[in-house]
């Protein structure tokens, strides 16, 4: 009997040892990428893949969000080393030699120039390229720069097929030759980027973690059918639809990992080590990023060792405590916020507004342009219970979409409060009292698998229906991540729950994004929102909110800047433009055999290059 037991134990031990593979890393997460095109991707799921496959000119140093080190450039530009000139308007990047793309093509300065120019000229709606337009040219989009150059609205420049009208074709060629091309130039082994005016966060905007500044292989891009690099064709490639981009579901850079496959059915991305990486090859030889929306499945994978780290549902974090094979890293600083947003002018094609009328079976498309409708939702969220019971304390209240840790954050600003009486009182005031007379019906959406956002949506439903029995009907809609993003971008969701992770560690990145008429979330909030924030107001001293935001971004005195942000935030709170729910406090859950991890709040997910596995 003893021999049998010993034999069984030996088999079990062998199986356990066989299961542990130090070369393969499985990350069980939520959802999947939206796109792998670096110039369109603007979410962390997409950014995580791009981060590990492509590289930028510079990267953040360790945990710092203000210090940099070289990447595809051999030096970080500074005034001291002579690579920042003209009072901060010229940046020189010496390009590293001997680096190869995954297909064997050598990295050249021309690849760097092409990457920046292609991104600027593509500039898809809802994408991240506004940051480079603003940093380099002082405008927020290609079209804004083009209208300024041509002197005509974009609607008059192109015909119905998207081709320039004959009288403007040469102007478009000149736009590239005189505006875009001179801003990014190759000079020998260097790439020189010329800013229209000094812009402090420029290096933050192009550092690694910013996929919009990733370096592509020009030759491959042209072969795939992207912009051919010629001045008389660029408009043919602008606004390319997501799925039509050759880079939608494929990636190829110089990074430590090569892209293998994006299995859409399984929400699974597979990467393998780049054994010819210009630094040392990664210790991990294969990485699987697997979108598994069910918590119980992710938990079981971690416990069995089938996953090395997982996206944790904080509500169930205690289920993992006490397991000696699992490490829980708590209280990780973040520069992130989760916000409930409103669409003030919903797309007529929306299927989330019922009848589209104030008749008891829907809501009018501009329902949330009424401040009392927005305030009713703000009062229907039990913030303290959410943070205590769902987030298990790993979140904190914030008065606006500006996170603690950045200039302008003010904890003395008022917080929205959960109050059923206030929900009903605001509904009674909304739409001149018609809401409670006729009744409303609409949907609140969240990305499937995100339990915290699911709970927020459920609270809005439960407490609004409780405050006005029979008069409010709300459907909670779980949507797959790409579907959810597309619906917000098309302006179809009346209420949506979204987070924002800093693109660069500056208050403008949050204030502009959420509250400016040209911010990334502005189209998701509708034309009436854009009109509201761009209209001059007495309470803002005759300026619009847009103008104040622009003034604050340009201000160089931190004390003056902080006062401007306080004024902006008071207006935002008073008008309940959106509802900040919480600022996350980070928690990471991984097997104890995972080594090398450290936090950096600018990172869009894992940096698999720094990780290795060891028992």
TrEMBL record:
<dbReference type="GO" id="GO:0015833">
    <property type="term" value="P:peptide transport"/>
</dbReference>
<protein>
    <submittedName>
        <fullName>ABC-type dipeptide transport system, periplasmic component</fullName>
    </submittedName>
</protein>
<feature type="signal peptide">
    <location>
        <begin position="1"/>
        <end position="19"/>
    </location>
</feature>
<dbReference type="GO" id="GO:0043190">
    <property type="term" value="C:ATP-binding cassette (ABC) transporter complex"/>
</dbReference>
<feature type="domain" description="Solute-binding protein family 5">
    <location>
        <begin position="67"/>
        <end position="521"/>
    </location>
</feature>
<dbReference type="GO" id="GO:0042597">
    <property type="term" value="C:periplasmic space"/>
</dbReference>
<dbReference type="Pfam" id="PF00496">
    <property type="entry name" value="SBP_bac_5"/>
</dbReference>
<dbReference type="GO" id="GO:1904680">
    <property type="term" value="F:peptide transmembrane transporter activity"/>
</dbReference>
<dbReference type="InterPro" id="IPR039424">
    <property type="entry name" value="SBP_5"/>
</dbReference>
<dbReference type="InterPro" id="IPR000914">
    <property type="entry name" value="SBP_5_dom"/>
</dbReference>
<keyword id="KW-0732">Signal</keyword>
<dbReference type="InterPro" id="IPR030678">
    <property type="entry name" value="Peptide/Ni-bd"/>
</dbReference>
